[in-house]
Amino acid sequence: MWIPTEHEKYGVVLASFRGTVQHGLPLEIGDTVQLLEKCEGWYRGFVHKNPNAKGIFPCTYIHLKNAHIKNKGQFETVIPTEDSVITEMTTTLRDWGAMWKRLYVKNEGDLFHRLWHVMNEILDLRRQVLVGHLTNDRMKDVKQHITARLDWGNEQLSLDLVPRREFSMVDPDEISVTELFKLMEHRHRKKETPVPASTHHLFVHMKSLMSSNLGEELEVFFHIYDGRENRPLSERFFVRLNKNGVPKSPEKTERQCTLFVDLGSSDLRKDVYIVVHIMRIGRMGAGEKKNLCSIQYRRPFGCAVVSIADLLTADSKDDHLLKVYACTTESEWYQIHENIIRKVNSRYNLSGSNTGLAVSLQLLHGDIEQLRREYMVLFTRGVSITKKLGFSDIIMPGEMRNDLYVTLEKGEFEKGGKSVARNVEITVYVLDIEGQVMKSYVAAGSGEPGGDEYHSFVLYHNNSPRWAEQIKLPIPVDMFRGSHVRFEFRHCSTKDKGEKKLFGYSFVHLMQEDGRTLPDGTHELIIHKCEENANLQDSSRYLKLPFSKANLPGNNQAVKGTKESFWITSFLCSTKLTQNGDMLDLLKWRAHPEKINDSLSKLKEIDGSEIVKFLQDTLDTLFGILDESSQRYGLKVFDCLVHIINLLQDSKFQHFKPVMDTYIESHFAGALSYRDLIKVLKWYVDRIVDAEHQDHIQQVLKATEYIFKYIIQSRRLFALATGGQSEEEFRCCVHELFMSIRFFLSQENKITSPVTQTQAVFLRTFPAVYGELLKIFTVREVAGFVRETLGSLPATAHAECPLEAVKLHCIAKTVESQLYTNPESRCILLPVVLRLLQAHMQEQRDLVMCARILTSMLSLIRKDDSVTTEPVVSEEVDLIVDSLLVVLMRTILEITNRPQPAGTNMRLQFQDITGEFVACLLALLRQMSDKHYQQLLQTFTSKDDLRDFLLQIFTVFRILIRPEMFPKDWTVMRLVTNNVIITTVLYLSDALRKNFLNEKFDYKVWDSYFYLSVIFINQPCLQLESFSPSKRKRVLEKYGDMRVMMGCEIFSMWQNLGEHKLNFIPAMIGPFLEVTLVPQPDLRNVMIPIFHDMMDWEQRRSGNFKQVEAKLIDKLDSLMSEGKGDETYRELFNSILLKKIERETWRESGVSLIATVTRLMERLLDYRDCMKLGEVDGKKIGCTVSLLNFYKTELNKEEMYIRYIHKLYELHLKAQNYTEASYTLLLYDELLEWSDRPLREFLNYPMQSEWQRKEYLHLTIVQNFDRGKCWENGIILCRELADQYESYYDYRNLSKMRMMEASLYDKIMDQQRLEPEFFRVGFYGKKFPFFLRNKEFVCRGHDYERLEAFQQRMLNEFPHAIAMQHVNQPDQTIYQAEAQYLQIYAVGPIPESQDVLQRDGVPDNIKSFYKVNHIWRFRYDRPFHKGTKDKENEFKSLWVERTTLTLVQSLPGISRWFEVEKRELVEVSPLENAIEVIENKNLQLRTLIAQCQSRQMQNINPLTMCLNGVIDAAVNGGLARYQEAFFVKDYIVNHPEDGEKIGRLRELMFEQAHILEYGLAVHEKFVPQDMRPLHKKLVDQFHVMKSSLGIQEFPAYVRASPVHFTNGSPRSSCRNSVPNIISPDGARVVARRSPLTYPAVNRYSSSSLSSQASNEVSNITGQSESSDEVFNMQPSPSTSSLSSNHSASPNVTSSAPSSARGSPQLQDKHKHSRENSCLSSRERPVSAIYPNPLDPAQRATPHQIGDTTLPRSDPNLSAPDKVRTTFSSRSLDSVKEVNNTQFSDTVGKLLCPPVPPRPPYSGSSAKTMRSQSPLPTSRSPQKSSLPPFTPSPTECQSAGLVSNSPVLSGSYSSGISSMSRCSVSEASGTEATTGDHPAHQGPTMPNSVSSGSDELIRRENKTPPPYSVYERSNPRRPVPLPHSLSIPPSVDPPALPPKPHQLRTSSMKLVPTSDPRRADGVPHVPRPRPLPRKVSQL
Fold first, then answer.
1. Which of 893, 1131, 1675, 1803 is the most buried (most CB within 10 A)?
2. Which of 160-164, 987-991, 1430-1434 has the highest mean predicted lDDT (pLDDT)?
3. Residue 1934: is its pLDDT beyond 50?
4. DSSP state, residue 461
């Protein structure tokens, strides 16, 4: 049975548990669990990281921990009762763990490794804390380390700053906001700026001396030297080195390492140096022989110097190699370091080129105790301490030191009868009072222990030696009296014996008889002569002699006059001994009572360090004198006491204050002193007002604190001794004293008056007195003193008066004092404090201090649970709110709106007070209860006051929410702020409802309220979704989701508004939309219905909600681009609003609005996803195009449209799609006119005229067209610009433009261009973005990109997509699948510009442009067998399924891909298929023959291979198969309707034979000698072929017009006009999967129609053993085009081998073949490609020109013109009717070369539909007496033919707002009809038409321009005008274009004028002018 757990509430998982049992809960090791129930070894509970999932788990897996339970019961919270630091460590490490892994993924290796080390360190420290064996001090250290590391990690990972007190995290609810702010600020500052240390220490480690001339032991002395004052700053550090130059005792580190301690900040300057002196121990001369002398001397070796400033810039611990210098003359040794410092090069030189001293130097900062903690190893290993000479900057009490430093300066000696000067050595001894040598008290320096004696170094032959050697005598204080120092002088002989002879001595006493020590300074000592054997052991014999020349009596001239002297300098550094006689006199006042007066007077002149040495003794003396004779010396003692007290205020001695405090508490015994002290103090205070000189009085008042301490302690001692006598008298005295104080404070004086300064001095010290008074008086009494004293201050003071600041300072100290913390005294003091504070804040004075006072006041007020303090607190809050709330808010507004000061420090201070005032406001508001708010609102008597207050508080709240208000890691502070704001807003919203609704409605207040609410919800710190799970949980537990609370409040307030809602429509739409985009479902559910409400009210007001729609759309774009909103929001928005409007009368328009907004969201979300970093450019471009079109077509938002045009332009440039970039920018260009209208600054465009901007755009577009090799397009723009320049007579620019145009023509002719491949891509499945989902596109491939590469690129762009392995249309399951499917295959373009392509003599590099540019339609063919497959002859049943895709815009355009708008499917019969194959092969042959004739072909091989392929295949049964299939009686009987087509096939066969014959003739002419045998074989095979076809001679109609290639191209002599029976209406979609690709071109393969096995591909037949497999081959391409760029096959199959792209089952020899771009049935080529044998005069009318046969397009063939017809019926009858009008017009006209002419016009004889099949044309043979062929091989185009040649549009597009294409007048449709009648005289045209007239015709009929900036009036597609240059062609007939400036009509469309040069002479019927469009304002 499950029992609820009582004590087992919290546990940690010891091992992972899979939870595989029923109701099992999976656990991971380390998880913390809360236990709910227990049953037989199992627990039931949940893991803290997922409290919703509850389950069971074994008890053995859990380690229980003690826990504290809050809210026991269903909603209990369990908190482990462990150290809060442990808890924090655990949660922090969990958070870090997840982030640490992310660092690895992001490749932030450095931080990853550092964090790993810190985490391990924290875990280690955690173990130490958990074990619990640490001492308190060690525990404190460990916790400090832990928190420091936690803070470091949080900072590195940009986590929140944790407020702590004593290492524990602080609960913000348990302390006031002001305290929280202080803690946060303290931690923030600590993190920001470490306080610079005032004490510094130098660590020195002596390593070695490197020199080539060692061999003797060395002594090295370091000391710190002040170069400015030329004196040492420290004692010496002494290291002994052995003969190798390394320390003698390497194991004793303290002998080679030292710490120069207590350097002040002033010592770290450039002219402070480390000086090193090196002595050698050995022979007198460095080069002497070793055995010469056994005695060793100390001799100078070298000196090194380094500046301390160098160490400040060096790394933390650097090894230095110091250069060692030697003296040039020994006598200069004493000042060698000064010479080196001053760089007096003549006096020193390097002691050796390779001599160097290796030392390690490091500067350490902080006090010595801190160093002991931080550098523990240093101190445990051993380091000697080298002290400073004298005391440090700060003298610490209890510091014991008694060091006498003696410096051996110099000596003057006589020769002593010698011929040369002496070698003098001094030996120093210290002797005690008994005359005994003191052991170990002579030290050469720190580092080595002291010795009994000290030997100076020896200078060679020098009677005036200067040593400057410092020695230290650390003699104990008690041994100083009677001690003396003796100096013995010896001459060191350099002779064989090397003995030292004593010749004199000196001595000096250390203490004088009166107890004073040897004074500091230089002493000239007398040298007493003596012999070597003189007995100096008995010191009493010489101590009576004089020792110093200064002390000699005046009559002793004999000694004074001796030349011999010895100088020393002494310096005592003692905390116990003094050299000051006045000090001794004062301390011994009882011995000399007559000297008391003098001693007291001289006390002020004694050095402070002497006084603090004897502080207690001095104080005892003073109070002793006061007790004995207070009348006589009272005033002087008081003055001395004041002097000492003020001395301790000095920073040098401030640490002695505790010494004085201890003295007062423990040693002070002056029980009667209080009377005298009060009396004297009052005497001084009473004289303040009248005194002229206030300096002394000010000194007295500075000491008030300690004077009161003495008074109070004295009174307490007296009361203790007497049982409390004279209490009233004492109180009376104190009251009188305060009366005197109040009187002097109440004086109003001038600002500069000394009394004002004295008042300021008193106020500074007054708060320190409170604590002392409380020792005797009650709290209320003291509070009374303070209130009255502060209240007596003059009320009205000048702002610049220094007293004002001091007053405030005094108030601050008062508020921070112990007195104020007591609630009893607080209620007495509060009114005074508030009055002063209010006055300052209102005048904005001393705000820093005001902030400090307020902070302190509010830190004391907490909502207390105890009933007793609640009323007190409430009353205080009342007072503060009443006085300061409004002032405080005004202050915050003032500060935040003020410009920030320039200086960094000022700015920091400025930010600090803002934060402090904000914390104060929050603290105050948090303390306010319902009652307080009611009282506050009642204080506003008028509505205006309340309104102002509300506006003010809402504005302040908006400021508090600003991100810059607090540092970014202060989340704790921000959450507290928000909690206070929302609580206050809930209180105030009631006031808003009650006072500002209905007739009292005030828009400004409500607007401010809504604005605040919106900003509140959108704050980053409230977006819980961005937090880690643990942080989110903590915030929700503590505060809930404040966004939802505020959202509900907004909704509630909105509902209250009623009809006033209209005031906020549309202003609040944007802000509310922003709120709904916050990813919080509850908030969205609350807020989205407001939009319905807005729509409803707007509908009531204006009958529509256009405003709502416009505002929604505008804001959505900007908000979603910022990353707000998601798919869920889109669905929620849609569903909630649709549900809301179900019953509304305006439901339909509402649904429309919601649909529009939802669709916009789809596109914006796609756009945002695509724009993410790392997304491919293709996706970004596609998405931008989709959004841009949406803004244009659906929303008509001009500005957004233009913005996205430029975004798309940038994307294209980045992807190097220069052509697409040009088309894109052209969209903006089209919106502008050539006018002088000024345009505002926009995007990156400056303010300029419309003309200038359009000119700039034109130039940019031309430049990009040039880079994209789209030169034809650039030419048109060049012309337009040139016309503009011409019209303005700007010939300079006109010249440049013409040159640019010329250069583009050159590039067309000279540079090679690659023809791109085109691919059809289907995107199926719901996982694609909206702009792609379940749509098909045609994409223009990159240069050199083939199908495999393209497919791979698409799969890389969509890595989750699955490539479909068939080309059939997918079914609904694929459409609805939750996946991504890609279907890709190649398609062939169907060119529009037929006239250029049909023309012979036009260079291929011109044609190549028209083949692949401005393409609207693409084709894909799939072969299949219908019916039974004939294995003997597969051609009988071989049909072709032809798919034609029509795009929404032509390629290339503003994107590399466009959506397929329409898909047409037709089936081509076997007979038509055969006709196409032969026609294509004939065309290929003609082209090759023409190229060969015109010598365009460098190599004849292509012609050879083509001839070989056709003849070989024909001989071996190729054409025979067609005969078998279609010429047999059975077929003709069964298909009577195909009679004409059969005739056409027969004609084509004869035509092919005719062409072959001519081709062989040409071949014979050019064939090289080595290929003659092959040619002969071909001729033989050709005769066989003719006979197999039954051709003995060509028919009459062939003979009548023999093949005559005037321009290199044979013409066929017949063309049959059999109609195409296939209609798209009856077209059958054959959705079979064919594994074969069809048709493929065998490039130049001799086997393309070969006699190979029947399953190989031939020109006519494709046979296979398998009934399912059909191979179909097409004619080989010509060599004249870049056809290799076309893809081999349009369909993608799974088994495609790498080389046979999309053609998986072709045999190897066909794998290089290319897919034909098959033309659709409606796009039969005119006879330019498939020439008629007829002459131009005998061609058919426009109605009959359209061919019925459908050639499979070869990629190299020029694509035919589209032929449109009005006929929908496909019956033969209709065809016959048409045939009756055959040859009614001489329609052929020769056209001039194509690039790029002025735009022609085109017309149509009939309205046509693109979907209809082409009109059948009669092809009956005719005889003609005209010349067989025109000089140009190109057949002319019919005047009535519907041309696909585009017409130039003046503006290339319409404007944004004219988004639909202008319709073309019906008149244009009749134009050609009128032109038909004269054309009927065509056949009678005279035979003498010359080539000259051809030229004329060629000139008159200009070729269409190079890109389709042409109109296209097409009932087939009533879609908006595409946004590119490629405007569909119009239906007008071609005509000569006007100049571009004429084209630019106001509508930006071409309005044709009648052309006198029209061949038919019929006047042109003008089209109506379209309506003018809106021109862009941008």
1. 1675
2. 987-991
3. no
4. T
CB half-sphere exposure, 1842, CA atoms < 13 A: 30
Residue type, 1510: V
The model's pTM is: 0.62
Q: CA dihedral in degrees (620, 623, 628, 632; nearest 10)?
A: 130
Residue with tokens 């001090």: 137
**Looking at residue 836, what is its pLDDT?**
86
Task: Give the strand pairing for 384-386 and 257-264.
Answer: parallel
CA–CA distance, 771 with 116 (Å, rounded to integer): 52
Contact 65, 57 (CB under 8 A): no
How many CB atoms are located within 10 Å of the residue 1169 CB? Answer: 14
Tokens of 743: 């009187």
Rg (alpha carbons) of the chain, rounded to whole number: 55
d(CA 1627, CA 565): 136
**Residue 1374 CA to chain centroid, in angstroms?**
41
| 1336 vs 1443: CA distance, rounded Å | 13
Question: From CA 1050, how far away is CA 510, in angstroms rounded?
Answer: 90
SS3 of residue 110 by DSSP = helix
DSSP 756-823: HHHHHHHHHHGGGGHHHHTTTS-HHHHHHHHHHHHHTS-S---TT-HHHHHHHHHHHHHHHSHHHHSH
- The two counts, helices (H) then strands (E), for the chain are 63, 43
Q: Which of 1385, 1968, 1932, 1352 is nearest to 1689 (CA)?
A: 1385
Instruction: Give dist(CA 1423, CA 1718) in Å, integer.
Output: 12
- Tell how strand 32-39 and strand 42-47 pair up: antiparallel
Query: Which tens digits make up the pLDDT trace of 1127-1162?
Result: 899 999 999 999 999 888 899 999 999 999 998 998
Interatomic CA distance for residues 1913 and 1862, integer angstroms: 8
- Summarised one tens digit per residue, pLDDT across range 103-137 is 888 888 889 999 999 999 999 988 888 887 878 87
DSSP H helices, 1058-1088, are 1069-1076, 1081-1087
Under 8 Å between Cβ of 301 and 241: no
Which among 1684, 1759, 1714, 1700 is positioned nearest to 1315, based on CA atoms?
1684
8 A C-beta contact, residue 1859 and residue 1193: yes
Whether 1582 contacts 1516, CB under 8 Å? no
Question: Can you read off the two tokens belonging to residue 599?
Answer: 């001693």
pLDDT, mean of residues 465-486 = 90
CA neighbor of 1547 nearest in space, from 1749, 1299, 1691: 1749
pLDDT at residue 731 is higher than 60: yes
Give one word for 599, left, alpha or beta, with left for phi > 0 and alpha for psi -120 to 50.
Answer: alpha
Residue 1618 pLDDT = 36
Among 1310, 1302, 1308, which residue's Cα sits nearest to residue 1407? 1308
Long-range contact set of residues 832-839: C-beta below 8 Å, sequence gap at least 24: 832/787, 832/790, 832/791, 833/857, 834/879, 834/880, 834/883, 834/884, 835/883, 836/790, 836/807, 836/808, 836/811, 837/808, 837/811, 837/883, 837/884, 838/883, 838/884, 838/887
Integer Cα distance of 1777 and 1779 in angstroms: 5
Identity of residue 1702: G
Measured CA to CA, the distance from residue 363 to residue 1527 in angstroms comes to: 111
Tokens for 352, please give them.
């050796």
Separation of alpha carbons 157 and 151, rounded Å = 10
Output the CA angle 1766-1771-1776, nearest 5 degrees.
Answer: 80
Element housing 506 (H / E): strand 500-509
Query: Which strand ranges, in their side-by-side order, compose the sheet holding 484-492?
Result: 453-455, 424-431, 484-492, 500-509, 528-529
Q: Which residues pair with 237 in a beta bridge?
A: 222, 446
Tokens of 1061: 């809602």
